[in-house]
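Structure tokens
________________
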Amino acid sequence: MKTSQRGWGLFALAASFFCMTALGYVQVANADSFSFTCNDGDQDGANEQCEDYNSNDHDGCKSDCKVNFCGDRVLKTADSDTAANGIADAQFFAPNVQQATEGCDDGRHCSDGTPCVADATCFGIGDEVCVTRDGDGCSSTCVDEVPGAVCGNGIMETGEACEDGNTDPGDGCDATCQLEADTCGNGLKEGSEECDDGNNFSQDLCKNNCTKNTAAPAGFACGDGNIDVPPESCDDGNTTDGDGCSNSCVDETPGAVCGNSIIEIGQGGAEECDDGNTDNGDGCSSTCDLEAAAVCGDGVVAGAEACDDMNADNGDGCSSACAVEAGFSCSGSPSVCVPTGGVTCGDGDVQAQELCDDGNTSNGDGCSSACEVETGFDCSGEPSVCGPLCGDGLVLTGEACDDGDLDAGDGCSDTCTVEGGFVCSGEPSVCETDGDGDGIGDSGDNCPGVSNPGQEDADNDGDGDACDNDDDNDGIPDGDENPGCETDPDPACGEPDGGGGDSDSDGDGILDGDENPGCENDPDPACGEDAGGNDDGGAVEEEGGGCSLTASSKGATSFSLIGSLLLGAGFLVRKRLSI
């Protein structure tokens, strides 16, 4: 409830109007709205942004000569153009321009959805910024995220003349979001109303008939320290001339001058405070705006804080009470504190702008030569201990794998070790099962059921030798091959008429096994024989012009012939058996 009791300050007035406006219920010109004449054909100070000579709030230039913009909770549905009325086209005073038409406009919000008109409302909430936002039905660019007007959702959308967040009749905005008969005092500026501040008090800026108060309100007095708008443009708490604010509370030096101890109104609006200086951090800022209460640890240097480094730790230059600690100097907001003797990377102390310090200036160990945490590492403590960051997809020293997650059971564990029964490769690691444990993934293992890390495949048939029953692919199982012929693709390997040690390498009709020593590759059948047809090792005697063998020679020869016959018979038997 506003009151006519004397002693109200500008802060009380401003706070009252600010709170109601922030909730989206009041559409009333602020104090500086009365310092110019709207739609007179001239730009009257920076407060007048446009002129279109009508009272339509939805055509780009509102009735108070301010431009429509996305986030003002006023739906822009058309462009200003008054040529049809015989008056010059709408004017937009630079840098202001006509904005695009909107599909919706639900105003600005803090990150938690709280309606706002200034960042101050969002102090301590999320990103602490008052902006238009996506995801609430009306996008940050005032495009309807759910096409089609939905009356009662609190979002001004195309086709709606009003939107009060409900579908109740009798509150000025009916169940179809069309304006009802003017209801002055409901907080909605409707129809022919010049303003509506939601009350029936006539001694404020908006009278109880919803017209602007342009006369000196009763009960407001010059010299009480409060700017009573209108007609006061200053109030220094006295009625003395010559001190900057006259005895009728008119600024003797037009325009607000922050820091002169006089709360004034200028082109930029009314001062919220003036403490006689332009220092920040003392409750009244350098622009004469009220500062938020100081909260140590929020990263904002305010009030009596000498620093604020966004934490409540001691020993880092800015104490838990936001005072600069001995041996440090701090600057900025959030504060960055450095030892007065300077910062030395590599000394093991994490200071000021250092993100780590592992006691050296080597690269590649997680903490770089500039004391920055290297990609793929995580560092903590003093001196910093750095290790590979498991789960980032980078396989670094100390990691056997890294598949980009911390899930167990997928081959690469949450500590970046290869799990049993898997093999992993690549970056990020791709893991697959290894059923035989030979280090070869099943998908590429030529013998997935039998360990064969060498992947030997003598016949190149795709089946590894360890699980191939016919290594030489000659049609004879390995177990039935002649000795030494398991990898010889010749089916005759080891047989008397070819293959193995019983072959005739030189084609002289004598099997290699029966050749005289050294004659296996000599095609001369007489290789190794003397002139008489004997081998070099035999004894020869001539009798009667012929050759006769000695007894011992004859016996040996007979024995040799018998042995040869037996050996031949054996091969024939074996041949038949193999067939």
User: Anything to note?
Assistant: The longest strand covers residues 263-266. Residues 232 and 249 are 5 Å apart (CA to CA). The two ends are 118 Å apart (CA to CA). Helices lie at 10-22, 551-578.
